[in-house]
Amino acid sequence: MSSRPVVLGLRENLAQFSLLVGITAFVGAMVGLERSTLPLIGRQDFGLASNAAVLSFLVAFGLSKAFTNLGAGALAQRLGRRRLLIAGWVIVLPVPLLLGVAPSWGWVVVANALLGVNQGLTWSMTVVMKIDLVGPLHRGLALGLNEAAGYGGVAIAAAASGWVASTLAPRDVLVAASAIIAASALALSVLFVRDTAEHVALEQASHGEDGVAPRLSAAFADATWRRSALRSCSQAGLVNNLNDALAWGLVPLFLAAHRASVAQVGVVAGVYPAVWGAGQILSGHWSDRVGRKPLIVAGMLLQAGALTTLALSDGRFAIAVIAAVLLGMGTALVYPTLIAAISDAVAPIGRAPTVGVYRFWRDMGYAAGGLLAGTVADALGYGGAIAVVAGLTAASGLWVALDLRAGEGRADQTRHALYGDRVLVGPSGTRSPSLRRMPVRQGDDHV
């Protein structure tokens, strides 16, 4: 056990926080590699149509990631965040080999199922560990930085691998790059990452509770239907990732059907995660100031408007780029804010299992989106499928507006009233704040 004082705060834990941000970028890069290379591999190496490839690998990825999120949240309290982070990088090590020697597309689907497990473990743990480190005062900013790093990694890896794959075999690019990223991230996690159990215990002490984590069944019920602050975020997360599945799998086909060039499709595919990633830094911090609910509602409605614009664009490139920018802005408002809202509504000891349930429902959106995109597109065409998802997104935003109670509104004021200082310091430190005021219990739904 370290002899250093246990402190909550972004500046006070900057080294570990920055390391976890870097690892999150590696997590995103593993997925970004596939956004530009996997459809080419399916078409050139396996003779598959893009639509079939999207449906198979997206569904496998979404299901495995969703169920891994559920298990990771429950196991984090028992096994520790760091152990699960390392396990996630170990599990993905066979993926480059499977992709390199795959004799059939089924091997690629299996590799994507393993990639989903990797994403569920590594992204879940980096998210939760950052929340543990910074405490409640700058939670939104921490999540904004986390998601910005992850989706910055997606955008950079997608652009870079697509550029390299224009001169080299796409499968070779995917295999080599994924092997390098996985090995590097595993080494960083083993050698330098420290567990955050003491930070959780310190923050938990301020809540005046007995420190018992909720059962997974209780956390599942709370985040799925029982508590309004959690269920509204869970459904919004699912619809948000349904959007992403649409953008990942169907939008390139929609643009290609309207005679967009490969380069133009690449621009639209890259602009969306780039705006999403960069915007989350500002939106996460903004939610600390104005509260979570306004940004979630505005973001979902902006996403709906962007998809409606795209559906009516007839595939025109300039309009598609504008729609991609708007979709990225809307997603940036929503993505880190939802996890911050979930974290606000539960005690620290219940954070990992509850965030795990939320991430389960959120990433089920990939499976739902993969199935919905193909089915509705076959019946109504690409534009019709995009319009249907736009309608679902608007309905999701209205759900949040009606079901998520705003409470006191300003997250930073609530944190200041609770702690009376910007950091918490453990018993081995030299100072500690008042922990007597305004205990936040799991029954409180103020967001």
What does this structure look like?
With 447 residues, the chain is mainly α. The chain has one domain: MFS general substrate transporter like domains (Growth Hormone, Chain: A). 78% of the residues lie in helices and 1% in strands. It has a two-stranded antiparallel ribbon. Helix 3 packs antiparallel against helix 5, helix 4 packs antiparallel against helix 5 (105-134) and helix 10 runs antiparallel to helix 13. It is globular and about 60 Å long. Residues 408-447 have low confidence and may be disordered.
Give me a quick take on this structure.
The protein has 447 residues and is an all-alpha fold.
Global Rg:
21 Å
| Uncertain runs | 408-447
**How many angstroms separate the termini?**
35 Å
Query: How many DSSP helices?
Result: 15
Number of strands: 2
- CATH architecture classification name: Up-down Bundle
Which structural class do you get from the secondary structure elements? mainly alpha
Structural domain tally: 1
Q: CATH top level?
A: Mainly Alpha
Sheet having the most strands: 2 strands, antiparallel
Helical content stands at over 70%
Strand content: under 5%
In the CATH scheme, what's the topology name? Growth Hormone, Chain: A
Determine the mean pLDDT: 83
Give me the CATH superfamily.
Answer: MFS general substrate transporter like domains
